[in-house]
Amino acid sequence: MATWMIVLFVSMSGSLSLSEREPEYFSPRSCKELMLRYKTNEDGLYYLTTASGVVYQTYCDMTTAGGGWTLVASVHENNMYGKCTTGDRWSSQQGNSPNVPEGDGSWSNTVTFGTAEAATSDDFKNPGYYDITAKDVAVWHVPNNEQVNRWKLTSFLRYHTDTQFLNSYKGNLYNLFKQFPVKYNIGSCPDNHGPSIPVVYDVGDATSNHNLFGPNPRARSKPGFITFRPINTERAAMAICLGVKPTDCDTEHSCIGGGGYFPEGSPRQCGDFPAFDWNGYGTNTGWSASKQVTEAAVLIFYR
What we know:
It contains 7 helices and 15 strands. The protein is of the alpha+beta class and 303 residues long.
């Protein structure tokens, strides 16, 4: 595993250290840019720089489906029994309240948190989430608390889009969620769902992905997609459905990153994995998800 920061300096003679055609200072904006410019082909931690000059460290996947994938976020459920409590950074840390319909607003703001190396043990969001202009996304499901050099080995699902759908949303999820806010009462189901994009599996398949969720959500969704900003029956908004396209309005059982308020069953819903435990923690019965997916971080990449 590599950890790199690329900076070019001018020598005393005025010539550049790598090539006369290189700029005086170069630090890549994305893992794809790093891969294309320097033929970097090793997975690992690297330093990138935003357009405004902010330097940050993240993980680059340089080998999957052509490489060049930049880790920009991870969603980690630190406590399934805590519903919109401390640590639920992608939903709300302020409780399940109609007074905060957008929760923490992390899907559409520039607040950052966590570290790349700890992305499977805590929520993570870096400046690349809003700074990088990308075409596609990838998702990895990695067991909680796994060390970074074992992410690829232990991931039980990895899938990506290949339709360049982000071209329609100014190149990243930050802008997509500006158009489709993750906010209570912003719309109704099914009329106001966001886009559903087909995915290609790098590890696992659509069937094994679907089976991670309970029989009830399986009966109400199609596998092989990633869906953004679905809304449930009670007008609560989720952010991302994990490998599925909902066919009805019970989206809280297979989608993550809910908004700030869930009217039904309070406090049984709300949180980064809002109702994965509806019929018991990890039971994979009724509406409940399996323990495997409940106890895994969701890593989100751009390319």
